[in-house]
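As a warm-up, study this chain.
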Amino acid sequence: MLSPGFILFTLFVLFAIGFSFWLSFHKWNILEPAKPYVGLANYKQAVHDPDLGKAIINTLFFTSTIPIGLAVGLFLALLLNQQIRARGFFRTMFYIPVITPLVVAAIIWKWVYGGDYGLLNYYLLKAHLIQNPVLWLSNYNIAMWAVIVMSIWKGAGFTMVVYLAGLQAIPNEYYEAAEVDGASAWQKLRRITFPLLAPTTFFLVIISVIASFQVFTQIYIMTQGGPAGRTTTIVYLIYNTAFKFFQMGYASALAYVLFGMVFIFTFLQMRYYTQRIQY
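Now compare it with the structure written out below.
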């Protein structure tokens, strides 16, 4: 009964992982018949590749904005955990971006950021906040932030739902006892809510870091890695290496470099959280 799923998993996951690892030790170009074994040459090339270094910096910059997304999600969760009218409606509205296909969302935001016809420039000009249209996706200093804002908007609903689950798991007796002791709203938030949400925050940080290291679709749709490589992330560099320059061996090596980075970050986070729990 398990064999169909196991066969698919073996073919499209286990075999793909093993074959890509084998490719990383070869100079494998789709257009060339010779595919010689080169040992660690691809990994040595990665160490000295300035494009990879720039892509890592861009990816780490994208990852460093995770606290902003978590703060937005937590704010929405705290707001929609209150007894307000149409609470279910607002929860649904904030969650709709999560179920919107990422390609569709990226296309919509590309239109919003459009330099000549974008809605953002239109309303900013109407409000006299800017004098001339801003090229949001072509400006070296703004392009990455434009992608980050879109990504936060896309993921805020998921973060909100997870935090809502964490908030509803906190016994109300703690807050009642704090009120009896005269605790303020900020003290209850700081002494009760934040500590008891630590496991939820840890879960969100882990999956957010992994997702941020794999960011690709919004880059591909909105900026194509530009301007001047400012939004080129590791996964987008792997894509270009493999499917634009047909260097499958080197692209596989880059993929395993990415795997190593994700593994190290996840391991350090889990070790930090485990030590914190013990103390």
